Amino acid sequence: MNAHKRYRIFARLREHIEQPRSELEYRSNFELLISVLLSAQATDVSVNKATARLYAVADTPEKMLALGEAGVREYIKTIGLFNSKAKNVIATCRMLVDEHHSEVPDDRTALEALPGVGRKTANVVLNVAFGHPTIAVDTHIFRVSNRTRIAPGRDVLEVEKKLLKFVPPEFRLDAHHWLILHGRYTCIARKPRCGSCIIADLCEFRHKNID
Predict the structure, then answer these.
(1) Active site residue 162
(2) Burial label, 44 (beta-carbon count in 10 A; 0-12, 13-18, 19+)
């Protein structure tokens, strides 16, 4: 795929959704961090349902620590992997209090040192909370990047590096959101909705599902 076509794809995605945002519900950088941590192998809808109750009683690292692992677990037990996630939430909150004055750090290395926080979570926080032009590659972005040929790659890191190289700078800050939303609602896994896709004529997928 050439640079002109990539530009037209992102320009069209921007026309469709001018200011995209995360579908996770949060009110602070701390809540964003915890929500993204909880969202691994879980839907945003399920996370939002759990955190609406959780954040009502614990919206700071100190309050979360006061709940304890068992308390957190009770609020997030409807989310997949809730046992390990509750443990990571408490350990992360302890590090935020002890090492970062209860603030979410604006630093990749510091973020990835937090329990349960990997590269994808760090990329989301850096992008959404601090405005870094990072691109967090989840299953949706991986699929869309390979299927459309915007940034094909064998693994998430390769796709991330190609996206950072190929996405025009003016679109880079919001590219992560546009691609997730496109993969979540249009370029879905089993039967992509090519017939209603706004970039179908630019996409290089060979087996378009035009029904």
Answers:
(1) no
(2) middle
